């Protein structure tokens, strides 16, 4: 039972409000004297201020954070203290009372917070307020239980006009009221923490934030303990989240037209919050939300849970786009966590976002969409059906672009309905965060849910997705962004040693843990079939992620490793020589500037060429096999993903017609000059180019090896 006991003037008058499901197993807190609680509150205030403005904790600059006028503030983390702690100081153009209101509404900005309930409110003689709180935090993975807290919060105004909100855990040693841990939760401790909000003379507020916790790392598997012992992760997930919420709302108030969240920022923030919360509920699978485990198929790598609660799929208006009521009555969740080695979370997540076809099955994507938004659909069958392409449509982003929301349109996806193949576009709304490689200790997330084209506010959501968390962020991460480029892989000697050092820093975290959770709406009589399909699908995704992670691992791109081109292709130096020699043979001029002598210099010169150079195979359906850095930038892809892009995909209809008309000339004469036109990147962005040259690349025996293109004076439209 959740109860709000409002006690005034130290009397016993109380008002009890209705409860919530997650507190049904709790007993009301024991009575405690107001004088005793005030004593605890004053002690908490003193300890909090000594951390916020003093030296009670040894603070060190958080790696990767650069204070300055455009920065979010000064962020520090603890060094050698009990538990983990982080501190922030920043300036926002909001009044102190508004700042306090936002920070107290923890569910609106703290994505890890599942529940935040005020159980008792007491007024103090000095105008302050004491509250007894119960808080639940989601577990970030499937491998450890969630955390809950029993807290005292003290709000007061200081003599200089500063507003203070401080909190701490209540435990038995303080002779205060107590409450037992909930089922499926481990009780954690919050050491004196809080917010110091100082008004500025010209308006606005200076904010000091301290978060200090002991998350009981002893209760999790040893491999996961770094997650629960990382002050950096606490800063990213909690302290910075509070500062970013304040800055975002401050900007919306002062400059409503430049927030990045369009005309309805509150609605879009709420949508992002719903996606995150739905994914967290799937990862945790709490019994008080009616989740129940399905018996394993003998292999325990994937956990499958079912929720048949009537409220699980009930939105304010759950109907299909055609107006018919939903046939799906239950939800199944398949989830797993896996350990990753030597692949930066940001790079892996960016690849998963940009190249959905590398891991997703279009039949299951169609089922996810149809089962939830269009009407009854037959069971999905994994197959190599046509994947018409992926278009990402930006929707919103936060000030610093650390999180952005978008709509993904999968074009011409075929699915079976009543024995008929029905190609159509399907839509997902997704929120992505943590793709900045320089954000030390940052959690990378890609969460998405099927929608219809209307994207209405009250549409129910079944989020699925990925979360990647670094397990150790102690490595030096102050280096600039790493790119998956060819030149770095081929540097040898002194340059190679320098590259090796860069790569060791880019590793940042030698290990990370990825959590995958997918939700499926289904009719209850299909449970066994859907469970088998879901297990198989998650295992195929795990296999795809492992393959991609291996390819993206810096160890595969370091100076000690070869380029690892596709089977049957020449080494980079040989291919570069063939490209340049063939260009000179057919066009009579040099492709590269004079002075590029030696194999290594030629490779570097081609890699850094100012125009986009791309090679494609000579097959019935030509695919790209190589691109220089500018070419990769133009196609918005990587060397790994390049080989999945077909030549015809980058041209519009007019461009394809012009190219096919010139192909006979290219094969007979050896080259052709193409007029300017419009191409398309792998992300669906139009590209304007002034002109292009295509030529046939000959090998040592003068046989045609591939086609090469150079796009001159291109730009995104």
UniProtKB/TrEMBL annotation:
Region called Disordered, residue ranges: 1-34
CDD domains: START_ArGLABRA2_like (cd08875)
Pfam families: MEKHLA, START
An example molecular function term from Gene Ontology annotations: DNA-binding transcription factor activity
Alphabetical list of InterPro entries matching this protein: HD-Zip_III, MEKHLA, START-like_dom_sf, START_lipid-bd_dom
Gene Ontology BP, a term: cell differentiation
Polar residues composition-biased segments: 1-23
Keywords of the record: Differentiation, DNA-binding, Homeobox, Nucleus, Transcription, Transcription regulation
SMART domains, per the entry: START (SM00234)
Domain of life per record: Eukaryota
Transmembrane segments: none
PANTHER family for this protein: HOMEOBOX-LEUCINE ZIPPER PROTEIN ATHB-14, HOMEOBOX-LEUCINE ZIPPER PROTEIN ATHB-8
Protein name from the UniProt record: Homeobox-leucine zipper ATHB-15
Organism whose genome encodes this protein: Olea europaea subsp. europaea
């Amino acid at each position: 039972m959740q109860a709000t006991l409002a006690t005034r003037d130290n009397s016993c008058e109380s008002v009890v409000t209705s409860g919530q499901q997650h507190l049904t197993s709790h007993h009301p807190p024991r009575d405690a004297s107001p004088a005793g609680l005030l004593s605890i509150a004053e002690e908490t205030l003193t300890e909090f201020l000594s951390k916020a403005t003093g030296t009670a904790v040894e603070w060190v600059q958080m790696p990767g954070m650069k204070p300055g006028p455009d920065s979010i503030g000064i962020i520090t983390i603890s060094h050698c203290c009990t538990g983990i702690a982080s501190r922030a100081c920043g300036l926002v153009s909001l009044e102190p009372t508004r700042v306090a209101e936002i920070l107290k509404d923890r569910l609106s900005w703290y994505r890890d917070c599942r529940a935040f309930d005020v159980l008792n409110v007491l007024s103090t003689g000095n105008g302050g307020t004491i509250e007894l709180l119960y808080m639940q935090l989601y577990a970030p993975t499937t491998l450890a239980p969630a955390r809950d807290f029993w807290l005292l919060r003290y709000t007061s105004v200081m003599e200089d006009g500063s507003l203070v909100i401080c909190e701490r855990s209540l435990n038995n040693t303080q002779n205060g009221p107590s409450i037992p841990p909930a089922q499926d939760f481990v009780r954690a401790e919050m050491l004196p923490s809080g917010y110091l909000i100082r008004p500025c003379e010209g308006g606005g507020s200076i904010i000091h934030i301290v978060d200090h916790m002991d998350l009981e790392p002893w209760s999790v598997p040893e491999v996961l303990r770094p997650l629960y012992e990382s002050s950096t992760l606490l800063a990213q997930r909690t302290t910075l989240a509070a500062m970013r919420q304040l800055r975002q709302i401050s900007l919306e108030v002062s400059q409503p037209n430049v927030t990045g969240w369009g005309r309805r920022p509150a609605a879009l923030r709420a949508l992002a919050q719903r996606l995150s919360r739905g994914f967290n509920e799937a990862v945790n699978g709490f019994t008080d939300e009616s989740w129940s485990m399905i018996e394993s198929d003998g292999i325990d790598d994937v956990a499958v849970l079912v929720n048949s609660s009537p409220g699980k799929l009930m939105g304010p208006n759950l109907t299909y786009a055609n107006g018919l009521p939903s046939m799906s009555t239950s939800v199944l969740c398949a989830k797993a966590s896996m350990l990753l080695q030597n692949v930066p979370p940001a790079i892996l997540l960016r690849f998963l976002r940009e190249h959905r076809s590398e891991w997703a099955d279009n039949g299951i994507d169609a089922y996810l969409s149809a089962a939830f938004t269009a009407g009854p659909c037959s069971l999905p069958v994994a197959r190599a059906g046509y994947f018409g392409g992926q278009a990402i449509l930006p929707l919103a982003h936060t000030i610093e672009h650390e999180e952005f929301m978008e709509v993904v349109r999968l074009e011409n996806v075929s699915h079976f309905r009543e024995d008929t193949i029905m190609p159509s576009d399907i839509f997902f709304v997704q929120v992505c965060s943590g793709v900045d490689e320089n954000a030390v200790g940052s959690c990378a997330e890609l969460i998405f849910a099927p929608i219809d084209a209307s994207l209405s506010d009250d549409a129910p959501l079944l989020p699925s997705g990925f979360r990647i968390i670094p397990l150790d962020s102690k490595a030096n991460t102050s280096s600039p962004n790493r790119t998956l480029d060819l030149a770095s892989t081929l540097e040898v000697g002194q340059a190679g040693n320098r590259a090796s050092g860069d790569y060791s820093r880019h590793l940042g975290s030698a290990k990370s843990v990825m959590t995958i959770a997918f939700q499926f709406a289904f009719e209850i009589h299909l449970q066994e079939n859907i469970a088998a399909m879901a297990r198989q699908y998650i295992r195929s995704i795990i296999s795809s992620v492992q393959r991609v992670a291996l390819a993206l691992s810096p160890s595969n791109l370091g100076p000690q490793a070869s380029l690892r081109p596709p089977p049957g292709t020449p080494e980079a130096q040989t291919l570069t020589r063939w490209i340049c020699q063939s260009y000179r043979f057919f066009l009579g001029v040099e492709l590269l500037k004079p002075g590029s002598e030696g194999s290594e210099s030629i490779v570097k010169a081609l890699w850094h060429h100012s125009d986009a150079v791309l090679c494609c195979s000579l097959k019935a359906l030509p695919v790209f096999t190589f691109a220089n850095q500018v070419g990769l930038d133009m196609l918005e892809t990587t060397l790994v993903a390049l080989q999945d892009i077909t030549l015809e995909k980058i041209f519009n209809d007019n461009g394809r017609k012009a190219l096919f008309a010139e192909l006979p000339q290219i094969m007979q004469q050896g080259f052709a000059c193409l007029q300017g036109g419009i191409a398309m990147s792998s992300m669906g962005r139009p590209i304007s180019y002034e002109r292009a040259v295509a030529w046939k690349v000959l090998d040592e025996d003068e046989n045609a090896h591939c086609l090469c293109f150079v796009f001159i004076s291109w730009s995104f439209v």
